[in-house]
Design brief:
The chain is mainly α and 341 residues long. The chain has one domain (37-340): ABC transporter involved in vitamin B12 uptake, BtuC (Orthogonal Bundle), CATH 1.10.3470. It has 14 helices and no strands. The protein has helices at 12-43, 51-58, 64-99, 111-124, 129-152, 159-183, 189-197, 207-220, 224-230, 234-239, 244-266, 272-284, 288-312, 321-340. Helix 3 (64-99) runs parallel beside helix 8 (207-220) and helix 4 (111-124) packs parallel to helix 11 (244-266). The N and C termini lie far apart (52 Å).
């Protein structure tokens, strides 16, 4: 049967199968790693749960203690960590494409600073956890609008102008945060510092972050080819028929929203959005159709394992998960800088 008759040529079929396999095989591997990381997170803690007992809980049986530990405490926290890690990694990959800068991360445009100011203000007022999360989200959106408005000015914005504006706004938010910590009551400083370092202790509602992660992946997958072209530069993308300005707007708004959701859920957790996309590109190449879903899986698994270490390293005390990601991210980032020479 000819191609004109609707068939597939003998030469095209193996190539298509090879291309599909190149995309699917790494994703299946990362999905298996993600499942294992989640199982490790719910099994390990101050009370160790053997595999047989964990299986009993997952199948609807098990002791009341194990059911409470797994279903009410560890599983929601592990799922929140996975969703936040995936969101940050996808946002980092998008920002690196948008700014065409390999050192871009989800916080490069000052979004985490705005969220931190909103959250700390709510803490200083003595508001509850829901109000703190809502204030962080509003602060993140305010920072997004502020950076884009200043970068746009009276004309069109460029990646360099956007990046410089974001750096300056982030420095301004940093000054405000320092002032709030200096004047804040002593009894509220530990909670404020934990939020700034990233903490999943009170992340009990992962479903908003999970729905956001799933939705953004489904929306971005059809744009993979356009993102590949945009990564080569706006002029080449426009010459090939890609709607550059609309695509850049979509990336900026999407990355900002998912970063706001991540920061609202767990505070400012660094290095995930910077390191994970880099590592994946070293191993898998620069195909955004593969990088974006792989970043969601790898970022989620990384943060789940980091949070497990944060819970167990000095048990019964807990570390902020941002400390663990920084300890893992700093040497990795320095290695990437050395390799980039």
């Amino acid at each position: 049967m000819s191609a004109a008759d609707g068939g597939v040529s003998p030469a095209a079929s193996p190539a298509a199968a090879l291309g599909a396999g190149r995309l699917i095989a790494p994703l299946l591997t990362l999905a298996a790693v993600a499942v294992v990381s989640l199982l490790v997170a719910v099994a390990i803690g101050s009370v160790h749960i053997p595999p047989a007992d964990l299986w009993a809980v997952l199948t609807g049986d098990g002791s009341p203690l194990h059911r409470t530990l797994v279903l009410e405490l560890r599983a929601p926290r592990a799922l929140a960590a996975f969703a936040v890690g995936g969101l940050l990694a996808v946002a980092g990959a998008l920002m690196q494409v948008l700014l065409r800068n390999p050192l871009a991360d989800p916080y490069v445009l000052g979004l985490s600073g705005g969220a931190a100011v909103g959250a700390l203000a709510a803490m200083l007022l003595g508001l509850g956890a829901a109000a703190v999360s809502g204030s962080a989200f509003v602060g993140a959106l305010l920072s997004t609008v502020l950076v884009f408005g200043l970068a746009h000015g009276t004309g069109s914005w460029t990646p360099t102008r956007l990046l410089l504006t974001g750096v300056v706004v982030a420095a301004g938010w940093g000054a405000v945060i320092t002032f709030m910590l200096a004047v804040g009551p002593t009894e509220r400083l530990p909670g404020m510092l934990y939020w700034l370092m990233g903490d999943l202790t009170y992340a009990r509602t992962p479903w908003v972050a999970f729905a956001t992660l799933l939705g953004i992946c489904l929306l971005l997958m059809p744009l993979g080819r356009s993102l590949n072209v945009l990564a080569r530069g706006p002029m080449q993308a426009a010459a090939l028929g890609v709607p550059v300005r609309g695509l850049e707007w979509s990336i900026y708004v999407g990355a900002s929203l998912i970063t706001a959701v991540a920061v609202t859920t767990a505070g400012s957790i660094g290095f995930v959005g910077l390191v994970v996309p880099h590592m994946l590109r070293l191993v898998l190449g620069n195909d955004q159709r593969l990088i974006l879903p792989a970043a969601a899986l790898a970022g989620g698994a990384l943060l789940v394992l980091a949070d497990t270490l944060a819970r167990t390293m000095i048990a019964p005390e807990q570390l902020p998960v941002g400390v663990i990601t920084a300890l893992l991210g700093v040497p990795t980032f320095l290695y990437l800088l050395y390799r980039s020479r």
